[in-house]
Each structure stands twice: as C-alpha cells, then as structure tokens.
Amino acid sequence: MCKLIIFAIIGFLAQLIDGSLGMAYGVTSTTLLLTLGIAPAIVSSSVHLAEVVTTAASGISHMKFGNVDRQALNRLIIPGSIGSFVGACFLSNVPGNLAGPYISLFLLLLGMYILFRFLFRIKSETKEKSIELTRKKAIPLGLIAGFADATGGGGWGPIATPVLLSKQGISARKVVGTVDTSEFAIAVSATLGFLVSLGWDEVNWLWVFALMIGGVIAAPIAAWLVRKLPAHLLGVLVGGFIVLTNVRILLNTWAVDIVWVPFIYGVILLGWILAITYSIKTNKRK
C-alpha cells in the first residue's frame, strides 16, 4: 500500500511539472521509478500506459483554458506516434541491465538540457502568436521526439517544447498546451509498441493505476498554473532534480570510489543552488 501511495505521488508531481512546463512527466516519473530498481522496459511501459489517461486529462484541461494551437497539434501527432511506436519496440528488445545505465545517462543529459534551457534561454516576453509549424519541420521533430520519448521514458516534451519555443514571439502557454495535448497520441503509440513486444503480463496494473490517479488529479491544476507561474524557476528546479537523481544511479552503476561521491554531490548541489538563485534574481529584474 505504501508503494502505491508513493507511485500516486510520483504521478501527481510528474504531471504537475509536465502540465506546467510542457515537459518532464516521463523524465521525472521514469527517473524516480528507476531508483526503485524496476527494469527500464517495465518502467517505460508503465509510464506510457499511465500517460494515456493523464495526457488525455491534461489535453482536455489545456483546451478548456485555451492553451492549444490546433494546427501544430495535428501536424505533430502522426510523426510523433510513428517515432514513439518504433522506439517502444526497440527498447523492449534490449536487456534491462544493459539499457538501464544508458537510459539514466540519456535522462541526465535531458535534465541538464532542461536546466540550462530554462536558466538562460526562455524569454519572458510572449505574444498570442500562432505556432505556424510547417510539415517540413513537424515530421523530423515528431519522429525524433517520439523515438526519444519511448526509449528514454521521456523526451517528447524536452525536445518538442524548446524547439517550438525557439521561434520569436510564440506564446509559451500555447507551446506547453500543444505539446502536452499531442502527447496523448505519443503515449498511445508507445503503449501499443510495448504491448506488442512485451505483452500484457509484464504490466503491473496497480502501479499504472496509482500513476494515473496522481496524474489525473494534477492535470487541471497544472493547466491553470501554466497561466500563473514563471516557467524559469520551475524548469531549473526540475532540471536540477533530474540531474541529481540520475547521477546517483550512474554512480552506483559505475561503482565510483566512495571517496569521490560526496564531492560529486556537493558540486552538483552547489551548482543547482546557484542556478536557482540566478533564476530568481533574473526574474525579479524583468
């Protein structure tokens, strides 16, 4: 029972973060679940199966608050679904003990990207401008982000959101809402890929339902928060958390000398605190 409550809390926090930032549900929940020693393919399949429900709730909430660009949404869905299905089939055929460290390394890099992206590059000035995503850009973006999402347990948001935000004058809330809503199709495709490759027997439905419940509760709250909270600080907090957690997994995997472990953690924590302080000060000046 205690573990189910933990899973529900993980689902709640992950969806709260994802719905506010347009990224990090998969990265956050996968990172936390991997620390419990669960096989990577089982983790990713459980996360994506839970996401089928949580992303649906999130998409409905974002539509209700007017946070979705429907043209960009429609153009992302098909390539993203294809990339996600292929990525799920690929991961399902890789041994868990072999894939684990590489997935943690991938998540570590995504965490660093999220941190630096929100620390230095997010613009506070936004306009209610259409995303205007062309098919030429949507196809490679969807394929790459979908594949990364299925193989790493996260990647759709961390890849798609910054790419869409890179265009000057685009509304951040429209990007977040569109990416979050399109993730429903990506979650469905990844789940189908895992079920085809792994079968239903590998799914722990209690874990999945616990993640779903937490995520569904958080979805409308996050859709509302995206209109209220500054993304800078939340992005730095999430990025640093993901980096710290995955460094722990990698240090254990690589059997780093215990003498160096406190020093490594100290450097990461100091850098994280400085990043948070810098983000707060920067926001106050704007």
Automatic annotation (TrEMBL):
What membrane topology term does the record carry?
Answer: Multi-pass membrane protein
The entry's localization annotation reads: Cell membrane; Membrane
Mind naming one GO cellular-component term on file for this protein?
plasma membrane
Which UniProt keywords are listed?
Cell membrane, Membrane, Transmembrane, Transmembrane helix
InterPro entries on file: TM_pro_TauE-like (IPR002781), TSUP/Inactive_protease-like (IPR051598)
**Entry-linked Pfam families:** TauE
Q: Which residues form a coiled coil?
A: none
**What are the transmembrane regions?**
32-60, 72-93, 99-120, 183-200, 206-226, 233-251, 263-280
**Tagged with keyword Chloroplast:** no
User: Record's family?
Assistant: Belongs to the 4-toluene sulfonate uptake permease (TSUP) (TC 2.A.102) family.
Name it.
Probable membrane transporter protein
